[in-house]
Structures
1.
Amino acid sequence: METTENVRILVVEDNFMNKVLVKELLQVHGYGVLEASNGKEAVDMAESHHPDIILMDINLPEMDGMESTHIIKSRESTKDIPVLALTASAMKGDEEKFLKEGFDGYVPKPIQLTVLVGELERCLKKAYS
Ligand code: MN
């Protein structure tokens, strides 16, 4: 995986403006972007499109990001896809909590491009090298 354009990222976010922002940050960086607006859609998209990595908001309608990630990580067909939690709760200890829940990493909101890209690259390297 040498160029970012071959990397497809599933962005799961219910807030329209956040979704547009994250999508543009990623596309400017050369990543391919897929979108979902709730946890159920995320599970379906993970199955049908098998993205290289998932950026998962936690507070989502229909099914939240925790449950969605649990399902993705419990299925043979999707369990190897890295999932990064994307959330405003930036309290101490949260990163550990998310790792315990099965997430591969954590990106706090408001999103900083360097943090986002750093986490993406770390997870992609870990998962695919
Ligand atoms: Mn949300």
2.
Amino acid sequence: MARTRVLEVDPLNPDVEVIEEAVRVLRDGGLVAFPTETVYGLGADVFNTRAVLRVFEVKMRPLDNPLIVHVSGIRMLDEVATEVPEEVIRVLEVAWPGPLTVVLKRSSRLPSVVSGGLDTVAVRAPAHPVALKLIESFGKPVAAPSANLSGRPSPTSAKHVLEDLGGRVDLVLDAGETFFGVESTVVDVLRDPPRVLRPGPVGPEELERLFGKPVEVPDYARGLELYSGAPPSPGLKYRHYAPEKKLLLVERGSCSEGEYLGYLRELVTRLVGTGVALVVSSETAEELGGIPSVEVVVLGSRSNLYEVAKNLYASLRELDRLIEASLGVAESFEERGIGLAIMNRLRKASSRRVVCGSLPPTALI
Ligand code: TXA
Ligand code: MG
């Protein structure tokens, strides 16, 4: 395809003509990138196998990594899933629309390519007026992975979508920046206790309140290991969210705030001259920003993890654009609420991790 059209759309009161145009493109088997409250998605008619195959092709996504199906609400669930437990319906009545994706038994009507040949399907109802209006007007579920090239940071603006997929998709609906900035929480609700497959804006504490019982957060959901063999969620096999530059994540371990800052300072000072950049909170930037010839990418205040999440992917893209930098040194954040998603993404994006104090900074260089 030669051309990608971009239509601006009001995020709160989506213009009817723009939505109608996007619906026409979906009906014709085309691909529409649209905003959700998490990241931009790349949408296709879920029942059009050719359109869905094109999603995999333009993203260069492996065919065994299934797509999330987007619905406008619980009433649309029946079209793609079956035998949904009553307990799950009660949770979705509270959590939807919102950044919670549930893995359910797949309906036999759903083309198997959507769910990568699995007998399950991941479904969510997005809480973004543009996404909801689009699905409602289309009248059918929309398959939509994040609208990035496979392995790249997810897009939180239409500009990011065009960087990765410009010329490869039919239409981009530009409604400005997305709200959360990290992808939805994915939960396998067919297991008891429910298991977090990918952490997101709905943190484990909130999930436990919603389900009224403990939920399981395995190590791979924290980003601590990459799966080999048959993973419970196919996406876990693949490296994700990665910038092109090398990223060294410095975990806090049991260091105090002062020790952590000291360790970062010594590490970065020793790296001066090798093209090092800091990817840190505004507080840390304030403390360490003065080191000569070290560029600083600010993620936001570490006392506001929502701000850090929202800026995370744009910051990784910014690191790639810093001509002088060859290595980013990233700060770690508290694993609570959306912080678990931040740490999962940072660990997966990093080419190396080091725990504060475990190695003298000299040993790392
Ligand atoms: O916030 C989001 O979820 C965004 C926006 C666009 O809604 N979408 C998104 O989709 O992140 P995608 O395709 O980039 O990520 C889907 C994740 C992958 O890790 C995939 O492996 C997992 O969900 N997944 C999909 N279907 C699954 C299934 N049946 N069982 C287990 N994991 C599944
Ligand atoms: Mg993705």
